[in-house]
Amino acid sequence: MNPKRRMLISLPLLLAAGRMVHAQQAGATDPALDIDANPMWLQFRDSLFAGRPITTPADDVLRLEAPARAEDAAIVPIALRAQFPQSDSRYIRRIYLIIDNNPSPMGAVFDFTPASGRAEIETRVRVDAYTHMRAIAEMNDGKLFMSTRFVKASGGCSAPPGKDPQAALATLGRMRLRVEGEPVLNRPSLAQLMMSHPNHSGLAMDQLTRNYTPAHYVRLVRISYAGEPVLTAEVDFTISENPNFRFYFVPKGRGELKAEVLDSQSRRFEATLPVQPVSNPA
Amino acid sequence: MFWLACGLALCMTAAAPGRASPADDAALTATALDNGVYAVFGSTNEASPENQGRIGNAGFIVGADGTIVINTGSSYRHGRELLETAERVGGKPVVLAVITQPLQEFIMGSAAFADRDIPILAHEAGARLIGERCENCLRNLRRLLGEQAMLGTRVMVPARTVSHSIELDAGGRKLRVLHFGWGSTPGDLAVYDSTSGILFAGALVSISRVPDLRDSNTSGWLFALHAIDELSPRILVPGYGPPGTAAATAPVRHYIERVAELARDRQRGGASLYETLRKAQLPEFQDWALYALLHPRNVQKLYLQFENEEFDR
Known about the structure:
The structure holds 2 protein chains of 2 kinds. Chain A is mainly beta. Chain A has one domain (about 5-15, about 30-275): Immunoglobulin-like, CATH 2.60.40. Helix content of chain A is about 10%, strand content about 40%. Chain A has helices at about 10-15, 40-50, 165-170; strands spanning about 5-10, 20, 55, 60-65, 75-80, 90-100, 105-110, 120-125, 130-140, 145-150, 175-180, 190-195, 220-225, 230-235, 245-250, 255-265, 270-275. In chain A, a hairpin with a 6-residue loop joins strand 6 and strand 7 (about 105-110). Chain A is globular and about 55 Å long. By secondary structure, chain B is of the alpha/beta class. Helix content of chain B is about 35%, strand content about 20%. Chain B is built from 9 helices and 12 strands. Chain B has helices spanning about 10-15, 75-90, 105, 110-115, 125-145, 220-230, 250-270, 275-280, 290-310, and strands spanning about 30-35, 35-40, 60, 65-70, 95-100, 120-125, 160, 165-170, 175-180, 190-195, 200-205, 235-240. In chain B, the strands form 2 sheets. Chain B has a 7-stranded mixed beta sheet. In chain B, strands 8-9-10-11-12 form a 5-stranded mixed beta sheet, with helices on one face. In chain B, helix 6 (about 220-230) packs antiparallel against helix 7 and helix 7 packs across helix 9 (about 290-310). The longest helix of chain B is centred in the middle third of the chain and has 22 residues, at about 125-145.
C-alpha cells in the first residue's frame, strides 16, 4: 500500500464510508477498480497471505504482461515472466494469478520447481470487466512479490459465429505438445501445450436456447520431464477455451515430456513428447 | 431536408455536414448516385456518442412504384430517418428493406420498418445470428450511446430469408440479391441494380477502412471479392467508406491476404499469441480507419483459427 498513490475523494458520502480511491483513476469511485481496496483482493490477501508482507511493484522479480486493451475479452493473452532463472537456492515455487473483477478471481495457481528452468508462463484468460490483474510470486524462502496490470476488456458485441458444438466435441481432449526451437541439454527450453477443450464456465447463456451451457473446464495440468515435475497448474474457466500454456523445462538428457490434464468432469487426458536435447546450441 | 442529386464527384465535396437548418437537424444526407439509386454514408469509425453509432453505409433504390432500402441503420431513430428520407427523396413508399450483414450498424433500425409493416429480408444465416447475438449488442449500445439515442430500438429477426442469390422484383424494379457464401459473415448479401450497374456490397468491401474479420471466413471472403470482380459493377457502394468502383475489391483482398499470411507464419513458426500481437504491424494499411482497433483483433482471430486447425489434423 502506497499512500502517495492514493487520494481522498471529497464526496461526503464516500468520505463517510472512508473510501479511498486510486489516484490514477481519479473520478472512478468504484472500489472494484481500486487496486488497494478491491474487496475480492482484500479477501484473498487476508486468507492466503495473512499478515505476510507483499512487495509491489516487483517488476525485477516477476513481470506480468497483458494488453492494456483486450482484442477479445474471451481470449486475452498474458505472460508471467520471472526475471531470473530458477536455481536450487533461489526459485519461484508458486505464482498466483488473480483477476479482481472476474467471477472466479483466482483463476490459476502455477507451481514451479528448479527443474522448470524459468518460472515463465504464457496463457490466455477470460476477462469479464475492466479489472486489475495480479501475479503474486512466492519464492522458495516464502517471500511474496506482486506485479499488476490494468486491463480494459468487457463483453463487447457478443460472440461471433462459433465452432459447431458437435465438431468441438469431436476434438475435445486432443492435445498438442511441442518444443519451440531445438532443446539444448541443461538449458531452459520453451515448450507449448495446446488443448482442444471448450472450457465452459457454466456462466454463459446460449442466446438461442436461453439455456446455460453446463460448466466443463480443465482444472489441473501437470507437466513433467523424465518423470520429474516441471509445472503444475491448478486452473478453472478463467483460462480461455482451448487452453494453451507455454512454459520452460530443462532437459538433463533424453526423456519424455509429459502433460496430464484433468477436467471438471474427471476426464483425464495425456500427451507425451520424446525429447532428445543437443549438447550444443545449433 | 438536405440532399443532393448530382454527379458522384460533386457529391463527395458538396455533402458537407452542418448545412441542415435546426428544424430538420435529424434529416439524413442522401447522396444521389445514378438513376434513382442513393447512398447514405455513415462514419468509418467505431460507434461512439459523437457519431451516435451511425457507422457504415445504407442506401435506397427507387423503383416505379416503390423503394427498397438497403440496411436499416443503427437505432430506431436512425431507421425512421432512413425510411423518411428514402420516401421524401424518392417520392415512393418503401416496400422492402434488405440487410447486407447481421451487424449492429445495419440492423438496429429494423423496428422502424416493422412498425410500418415493411418486410425485412436477410440471408437465413444472418437472420439466425441476429437472433442469437443482437440483444447483447443492443444492451452494449444502450450503455455506450445512452437510452435516449437507442429509444424505441428493438431487435427484429428478419422474417423473410433467402439461402442463395435471388432475382427480386420490388417496387417495380428488378434487383439481384446476391449471396456468395460465408465471406465477411455467414449471412452476407449484396444488392445489385443491373439498370444502373450499382452494387451495394455491404461489409464485403470497405474503402480505406480495415475490414473486420471477426465473423469471417477468409477464403469465402476472397471468393466473394472475385465474384464482385466478375460482376464488374460500374459503381460500388462499400459497407464503409466513400463510393468506388469494382477496383475497390483489390485493397480489401490485399489486406486479407497479408493479414492471413502474417498470422499463419507466426502461428506455424511457434510465436506466441502475445508476441504475435505485439509485433503485428502492417504499415501499408496503418492509415486506414480503425487500423489500431481492428487490425490486432483480426490478427488474433486468424492466429487462433490456424491454431484450431491443428486439432483437426
